Amino acid sequence: MSTEALKDAVLENEWHPVYIASELKDKPASVTILGERVAVFRTAKGSVNALRDLCVHRGAMLSKGHVEGETLVCPYHGWKYDGSGACVCIPAQAKTDKIPLRARAVKYHCVEKYGLVWVCIGEPASELPDFEEFENPAFRPLPCGPYTVRAAGTRVIENFTDFAHLMFVHGGLLGHPDYAELPDFKVFKEKDRVYTSDVPIFQPVAHSGSEAREGTTYVYVKEVFRPLAARLSKRDAATGQTLWILLTVLPVAEKECIVYMAVSRNYGFDVPDEQFIAFQNTVFEQDAWIIETLKPELLPLDLQLELNHKADILSVAYRRWLIELGVKTGTT
Ligand code: FES
Ligand code: CO
């Protein structure tokens, strides 16, 4: 797998999802953001923290150590770092000796939201996207993932904005090739968001060659919030049952990423979460398979390089937005 670092001044200032929050317990974890190794840990009091995964003493990986109270203990010589990155204990020296001010690990911004742990290794350019439906106590929130993809994060987001693949890549699950024609729809742009009007898609029940046209019409709305964060809602037009998915991407390297989803639903509360997770896993495996085969591997930001069709207006708006933002992860 590529370990090539991705230097991108825009992406450095984004919040990236790094962990399922409930799975970050008392053991620290190592994650890679744009080629940078980061240690994330939860203190005894429950706060989440992120430090550069590098002890300033002799370069050990802090994530290989352990949490003690509010500190992360280096596995090599036991130096203890608090959540601000300050070293608060050097076991080899007398308690009365001062700890040098330079004994400090690089601290990164770290928060817990939507069932995920998020880290920004620069200065956050924005707040996390709004996802009211995840926090609404009347709905059922569920984090999904992680899914490792050997592809550029922007390729994953663009695939998520795409409607016309549902009937093919997810044929039988989210659509059917016999019902592939898409209605006209619009794309709107606001300061921090590009989104579509309602897009109804008919999903027939599986039938063996009969003329039956039974099935369900789902109304989709897709939105892109940030270079690496997008959301969809999928509403059953007849019942109003709705599924929301916020899909966010951790860019590990230029051509490698890890995908997390915050999912919420207003129905099926008696259906075990595992069933929803299994369904999302299947859908995402189908997406990953195709995304990993796309060429060029970096998203073409020269709009003349590929043939854009009217069904691709959200993807074109996304590419334009990336150009505007100055994201480097593309082929121009
Ligand atoms: Fe971390 Fe020595 S390398 S304490
Ligand atoms: Co898909």
TrEMBL record:
One of its GO terms (molecular function) is 2 iron, 2 sulfur cluster binding. This is Aromatic ring-hydroxylating dioxygenase subunit alpha. Coiled coil: none annotated. Residues 15-119 form the Rieske domain. InterPro entries: ARHD_Rieske_2Fe_2S (IPR015881), Cholesterol_7-desaturase (IPR050584), Rieske_2Fe-2S (IPR017941), Rieske_2Fe-2S_sf (IPR036922), VanA_C_cat (IPR044043). The lineage of its organism: Bacteria, Bacillati, Bacillota, Bacilli, Bacillales. It comes from Paenibacillus soyae. Keywords: 2Fe-2S, Dioxygenase, Iron, Iron-sulfur, Metal-binding, Oxidoreductase. Pfam families: Rieske (PF00355), VanA_C (PF19112).
